[in-house]
Amino acid sequence: MPPIVKTAAVQMNPELMQKEKNLEKILAKTREAASTGAQLIVFPECALTGYAFAGREEALPYAETIPGHATEEIAALCKELGVHVIFGLIEKDGDKLYNAAAFIGPDGLVGKHRKVHPPRAGLDKFMDKGDIPFTVHRTPVGNIGILICHDITFPESARVLMLKGADIIALPTNWPRMPDVVSKHFIVTRAVENFVHIVAADRVGVERKVGFLGQSKIVNAAGMVKAEASIENEEIVAAELDLAFPRHKHIVFIPGVWEMDWLKERRPEMYVEITNPLV
User: Cα(169)–Cα(186) distance, rounded to whole angstroms?
Assistant: First the structure.
């Protein structure tokens, strides 16, 4: 596993219900990102389909299985280019529909994530809640965990991925154009409090009167913003991330005088209320 991995967040404007057109753009943007040396390329939430569906029945014709047509097309390109890609889509599994992200590498499907915390917004109002435990995928480009948009606002989500050994959290997202607290603060906070890198790929554009924020960003485990996109433009931002950096949770400022350890100083016995349902 290389110590340094070049990552890219692709900020794009998916078109609602234009799945084949969006797939062609994902393939083209993958080539563009790979040409700059990117090894891990992250696309937005619902990059394949768009987000602002009016109901479950409207969304159903645009859902795909994982693996399926889109993952196979992207897998062929990943094999050709030697890259890893994470992209958002609507997954169908029997009579269930999920807001999902597929993780593809040169050898095909690596894994997937189903959004655990769907809010009352866009297609999430009609999706089933994700039922796959938070997973860290051990790959040649690092130990990768995936969250989708609203998942990141729940600190337990990123913490579980950190405890499972994540080097990088990939975050496909569709942030609406509103006060950008999540983009400005949550991403940096989750990176610092867990000492993990985060690659957040947002979308731009307007869909059924909903504007999207952009501001895709790559933040390292120290909370430094290594790359950030604009509010309005389709663009690719990239940054190199050191995989060794987040693996050393024991931080020494002054040996024997001022040290911190993100793992050993935890007190799980004091956090039991987190797992209890609200009364």
Answer: 13
Q: Which amino acid is at 158?
A: A
**Catalytic annotation, residues:** 45, 115, 149
DSSP letter (8 states) at residue 161 = H
Q: What is the pLDDT along the chain (279 residues), one digit of tens a residue?
A: 569 999 999 999 999 999 999 999 999 999 999 999 999 999 999 999 999 999 999 999 999 999 999 999 999 999 999 999 999 999 999 999 999 999 999 999 999 999 999 999 999 999 999 999 999 999 999 999 999 999 999 999 999 999 999 999 999 999 998 767 888 899 999 999 999 999 999 999 999 999 999 999 999 999 999 999 999 999 999 999 999 999 998 888 899 899 989 899 999 999 988 887 765
The answer to whether residues 68 and 108 touch, using CB atoms and an 8 Å cutoff, is no
CATH superfamily of 4-250: Carbon-nitrogen hydrolase (3.60.110.10)
CA-based end-to-end distance of the chain: 46
Q: Are 111 and 103 in contact, with CB atoms under 8 Å apart?
A: yes
What lies within 8 Å, CB to CB, of 12 at 6+ separation is: 25, 26, 29, 43, 44, 47, 203, 204, 234
What does the buried/exposed string (b/e) look like for 154-180 if buried means 16 or more CB atoms within 10 Å of the residue's CB?
eeebbbbbbeeebbbbbbbbbbbbeeb
d(CA 243, CA 261): 18
Residue type at 169 in one-letter notation: I
Count the neighbouring beta carbons within 10 Å of the beta carbon of residue 59. 23
The position carrying tokens 């807001």 is 99
DSSP per residue, 155-218: HHHHHHHHHTT-SEEEEE---BSS--HIIIIIHHHHHHHHT-EEEEE-B-SEETTEEB----EE
Q: Residue 5 is encoded by which pair of tokens?
A: 């991995």
